[in-house]
């Protein structure tokens, strides 16, 4: 890792690199609200992060994403499905001091607080990435060369095995950016939009804490019925503060000479403290796209379907962050199609047991999921014979039904021709009277007219004196050919 960085630093003169924002179209300062710079008001991300609503949103998002196991999937182009391949070791143990859960948690925290996550890659002797280190965003600076190439200036970081500052090319850094509002290489944290709400909430909490430290008694003034000298006013003020403020709050004060105490501070009820705190929480939740009920503000949805609520939370808050992270891992670990990185969503979008079992039953009965696939999702061992999807015997495909009808039609035609041959042979050999054969043909072949029946049976009438004989081949074939044509036409009309 260090060898690559030092090699890149030697080849790139610093005169060709410029920090992002030093030139070009982003040289302006970004304020948390209009006029913040003139008022010397600074929204410190650490102070804002200590506000309960900001802390709840950031940790909720980071916690939910960090529990999703990253996997490398392979697309089966023929079947159009994905299957799990061997786990990349670096995804299971990114570095020597973090687990995969801690690694992903830090990744998301950096995005939520700073708007940027910088991950330094370490390579083995073969050039493969075997470790990932999340860097302090305050100690990383993107650089752009005159030809548009991107580099990163890094400061020393002992955890990442960097004893000195180095410059590395973009190929050695995974840079995951939040909202690039002002520059493609500079992400903006949601605190940019909700920082003032966090500062307001902190001020309300601080004022409330002081109020309750004063035994819930507002500050006030001592008034006299007439004019008093400055010396007397100073003496009374000092006496009151020494005896009835701080740890002496609650002591009995004795007032004379017409002195009167009047409270001045607005009470918590008058200032609608609870409503103000709730409003700041709702504003912060909206900026992080977190449903309010997830952090304790707003009404809890009346929908009892947990899966539907988590799906909504995923769609409006997590999906963008997750898919962006997956693409950055693909790019950083140099994973190419048909392989790609997935974060396992089953832990988040898991239905309640009753709904899961119903879904499994429908999928198995529908024939598109095997019993063992359903058992695997419920952490159950596979059973013998459970790897094959099953269907009931009476269920047929449309192709099978069409083939059955075609074969049935051909069999009917064959049976009818055989019956006709038997009748004609019986008539020609005088085994049956011609009239009986004609009547039988009218019943067996109702689609034949009387003229057609007569045309078939008349050649079979024996000559005088009647003697048994077999019809000549020409007469037989002519009758059979005519009947085949008629039967086919009739069957085609029926089917």
Q: Would you mind describing this structure in some detail?
A:
The chain has a four-stranded antiparallel beta sheet. The protein has a three-stranded antiparallel beta sheet with strand order 3-2-14. It has helices spanning 2-11, 45-49, 52-66, 89-92, 100-114, 191-213, 230-244, 273-288, 306-332, 353-366, 371-377, 398-428, 434-444, 450-457, 473-494, and strands at 17-19, 70-76, 81-84, 116-123, 129-134, 140-145, 150-154, 166-169, 173-177, 179-183, 186-188, 220-223, 260-263, 339-343. Strand 6 (140-145) and strand 7 (150-154) form a beta hairpin. It is an alpha+beta fold. Helix 6 packs antiparallel against helix 8 and helix 13 (434-444) packs across helix 14. The radius of gyration is 44 Å and the shape is elongated. The longest helix has 31 residues, at 398-428. Among the domains are: 354-394, no CATH class; 405-494, no CATH class.
Structure summarized in a few sentences:
This protein has helices at about 1-10, 45-50, 50-65, 90, 100-115, 190-215, 230-245, 275-290, 305-330, 355-365, 370-375, 400-430, 435-445, 450-455, 475-495, and strands spanning about 15-20, 70-75, 80-85, 115-125, 130-135, 140-145, 150-155, 165-170, 175, 180-185, 185-190, 220-225, 260-265, 340-345. With about 500 residues, it is an alpha+beta fold. Helix 6 packs antiparallel against helix 8 (about 275-290), helix 12 (about 400-430) runs antiparallel to helix 13 (about 435-445) and helix 13 crosses helix 14.
